[in-house]
TrEMBL record:
One GO location term (cellular component): mitochondrial inner membrane
Protein name in UniProt: CP27B protein
Domain of life: Eukaryota
Gene Ontology terms for molecular function: heme binding; iron ion binding; monooxygenase activity; oxidoreductase activity, acting on paired donors, with incorporation or reduction of molecular oxygen
Cofactor: heme
Lineage: Eukaryota, Metazoa, Chordata, Craniata, Vertebrata
InterPro entries xrefs: CYP11_CYP27_families, Cyt_P450_sf
Protein family per UniProt: Belongs to the cytochrome P450 family.
One GO-annotated biological process of the protein: cortisol metabolic process
Keyword Coiled coil: no
Alphabetized UniProt keyword annotations: Heme, Iron, Metal-binding, Monooxygenase, Oxidoreductase
Amino acid sequence: LLLRPRAAEAYAGALAGVVGDLLQRLQRLRDRHPQHLVPDVATEFYKFGLEGISSVLFESRLGCLQPEVPRDTETFIRSINTMFVMTLLTM
């Protein structure tokens, strides 16, 4: 389901911060790569999704897009990924 525009507007500020952090992270990754590419952009979008969802659902940031992702956050990311994979295997 999609939110009505007025309801979605309440989350615009929080999500704008997440988008800004994603852009900064992608730029840092490009700057480090010899051909100015993001080596695994799918993983970065996955982290972006988790960060955005957490900012709306929990009103808190996980740190998925920080230059150094916290160890607990990395564990959480792997756990969520494992859950998705196991769900797909049972279908």
